[in-house]
Structures are given as structure tokens and as C-alpha cells.
Amino acid sequence: MNFEKAKDTYRKNALVQKQMAKKLVFILTNLLGNKFDRILEIGSGTGFLTDEIQNNLKYKEIFLNDLTDNFTNLTPDIYIKGDIISADIPNNLDLVVSNAAIQWIEDYDFLFKKIHSSLKYGGEFCFSTFGSKNFNQIKEITKIGLCYPDLREVIKNSGFKIIHFEQELETLYFENIKELLGHIKLTGVKTQNKVWTKADFLNFETKYLAKFKDNLGFELTYHPVFYILKSV
């Protein structure tokens, strides 16, 4: 992910991720209430979820984590810069939250067990990420994309119980392929490592036009999923 380069454009273009943050906190507060002692946010980014936490939750301490510097509008009790897999994180947490971030983690088993060990007994891990149909148009044409595994077995083996799961499909439409690819770039997502030639672009455009263009435009599907987990 090229998030650091895209930080200045992310908040304007990551509309789906912003709505995901709002929905995650809406689900969370309806199920768990709004009062917590110690909260850790993983992948705070430019602060979509951080903003929702500030506006809707009451807490005594909050800790933020991301690979980059703190780009949120909040000064946390501790800012943990670095990969969540290797970073030292606080213990005795009441709540761990994350929005549209953990799909970049390669070792889900390690991550979930680490989070479980950082929570108080009965603490919650609430997160949004993406499902298997995310950017399915891109993956079908290029055969390249992130793998979005079924997390249920990982969750069970990590000592969590799923108390809520929800998913939805959100399709955006663009006037042309350049606009679509520009949207992806401006949200910091990298779909391919190679540099495209003009022939690569024209080939991609032709295939996309044939399969994923209708009267609304060129379509791009997001597949948000929401989990509320309790440590047991």
C-alpha cells in the first residue's frame, strides 16, 4: 500500500472507507455501549475511525497505531508507529478497533492471538475489512489482487467469539478507466507492482469495457465486512 504518498488525497477520495468507519462505530455502540477505559486503534491512517471514536465513545486512554506518522487530528496517550505484528502494544485493553486496515496483514493467526492476549477477559475486538468480492473486476482482468480469507477459523482458534458479523457490497461508477485507476491510486491502493505500458493500459481498458461497463459507467465493487468479537 502506498498510503504515505496518498495521505493528502485519501480523506477526499476514500469515501467507502469513511462510511465503513461510521458504520463500524454505529454497530459497536449499539451492541457494546459507548464507555471504555482503554482503547487501541490499529491502522489509524488519516483518522476516519479516530474521528468517530472521538465523537461517539467515552474513554480514559486511547492508543493509536500505524506504519506512518500520526496523521489523525488526535494526540493519543501513546502513538505506536510501526507494524502491528512486531510493535509493542498495551495490555489490559477494553477495546481494540480497526477500520479497513487488517487486510494488509499477512499473518492473521499471529495478529488475532496477539490482540486477544492484549485484551482484558471479555474485551472486544471490533473491525472492518474487505471480503472476497472486493475489487473483483480488477482481479478478474489482471489475475492480481489481495487475498481475503474466511476469518472464522482464525477467530475461533484465537480465543474469540463472533457476536456480530455483517457484510455489504458497494459499487462505485466512473466515467472512464483513467478516473477509476486514479481513484485507486488516490486512496493508496496498489494493485500491481509492474509499470504499465500504453499497450497494457489499452488491453486493460478494452477488457474492462467489455465486461464491466454499463449505462452508469465503469464499475468498481467494494465488499466491506464488519466483525464484533469478544474474547472468551
Explain this structure to me?
- This protein is α/β, with parallel strands linked by helices and 232 residues long.
- It has two domains: 3-171 and 221-231, 3-Layer(aba) Sandwich (Rossmann fold), CATH 3.40.50.150; 173-218, no CATH class.
- The protein has eight helices and ten strands.
- The protein has helices at 3-13, 15-32, 48-56, 108-118, 136-142, 152-157, 177-186, 198-212; strands at residues 35-42, 58-66, 78-81, 93-99, 119-130, 160-167, 170-174, 213-214, 217-222, 224-231.
- The strands form two sheets. Strands 3-2-1-4-5-10-6 form a seven-stranded mixed beta sheet. Strands 7-9-8 form a three-stranded antiparallel beta sheet.
- Helix 2 (15-32) packs parallel to helix 3 (48-56) and helix 5 (136-142) packs across helix 8.
- The radius of gyration is 18 Å and the shape is elongated.
Question: Quick gist of this model?
Answer:
The protein is of the alpha/beta class and 232 residues long. Helices cover 38% and strands 30% of the residues.
